[in-house]
Amino acid sequence: MATNYKGTKQEINSLNNYIKLIRASESLSSRVNLMLNKKGLTISQFAVLDVLYNLGALSQKDLGKKILRSGGNITMVIDNLEKLGYVERERSKDDRRFFIIHLTKKGKRFFSNIFPIFLEAVVKEFKVLTEKEQLEFQRMCKLVGLK
User: CATH says 43-146 is which class?
Assistant: First the structure.
């Protein structure tokens, strides 16, 4: 799908780039989310487990920043992961208003089992691009993302 807007070449190209990027992102996210949902997770829950598994315990606020989620959203995500027994909260000793989020042993086991499935799905999605195209794709995404 392309824009029907009748403007300058730069405007039309920019709108078409935006449309294609968003549609590709939504399509990819939909397929990966479906796989995660079958394992009982949302993409946000997976992201929290991933960050905690790879970086260790973090404050709830820092965790939200890492996965680009608002304070209210990250609270709900952590609540649900806590109910599943994958994470636990600990009040910060320095500032009792803050919580440090830890991955439990159950959470570590679960993530180490689900990550290879996630990785396989992502690799499969990007097989449509050559290695050279993937590197160029990464470069372009970084340029647009850091603008």
Answer: mainly alpha
